[in-house]
Amino acid sequence: MPPWARIEELAISFGEILMPAIRQIVTWVQGFVDKLNSMDEGTKNTIVTIGLLAAAIGPVLIIIGKVVSAVGSIMTFIPTLIGGISSIGGGLSALWGILAANPVTLVIAAIAALIAIFVALWNNCEGYSNGVNYPKFRKSRVKTGAFFHVQKEREME
User: Quick one: CA dihedral 35, 39, 43, 48, positive or negative?
Assistant: First the structure.
C-alpha cells in the first residue's frame, strides 16, 4: 500500500469523527440564515447600520488613543520647555542690556537678522527666489530676443 493511501485513510477516519459536529454547525448556520432572510427590510437595515457603526468605532478609538498618547507626551515635555524658556529669558535680558548700551551693536544685529532672513527665504522658498530672479531672467530674455531678431535680419539680407 502506497504511503499516501494511509494518509487518505487517516483523513477519512478524522472526517467520520468530525462529521456530526460539522453537520450541527451547518444546520445552525442554515437556521440563522433562514431567520435573517425572514426579517423585514427595516430590521435588516438596522442590523447593517449597527454593524457599520461597530466597524467604524474601532479605527476611531485607535485614532483617539494615539491623540491622547501624543498629548500625554507633549504634557511631559512642557515643563522642560518652560524651564528652557525661563533660562533663555535671562540671557535675552542680558542681551537687551548690551544692545541698549551700544546702539551700533543694535544696528549691526538688525542687519545680520535681515541677511539671515533673506538667506533663509532664498534657500527655502522657491517663490521668493524665483521672484528675485525674474527681473534678471526677463532682461536676459529680452537680450536674447534682440540678438535673434538682429540675426534674422542679417539672414534676410
Answer: positive
Q: Give dist(CA 8, CA 15) in Å, integer.
A: 10
CA distance 115 to 109: 10
Whether the CB-CB separation of 99 and 109 falls below 8 Å is answered with yes
Q: Are 25 and 33 in contact (CB under 8 A)?
A: no
- Contact between residue 114 and residue 121 where contact means Cβ atoms under 8 Å apart: no
Burial class (CB in 10 A: 0-12, 13-18, 19+), 103: exposed
pLDDT digits (tens, 9 = 90+) for 15-38: 889 899 989 999 999 998 898 889
Q: For cell 533660562, what's the residue?
A: 87
Q: Please, which residues have CB within 8 angstroms of residue 49's CB and are 6 or more apart in sequence?
A: none
Whole-number Å distance between alpha carbons of 105 and 108: 5
Residue among 117, 139, 138 at smallest CA distance from 128: 117
What is the residue-wise DSSP string for 84-104?
A: HHHHHHHHHHHHHHHHHH-HH
pTM: 0.32
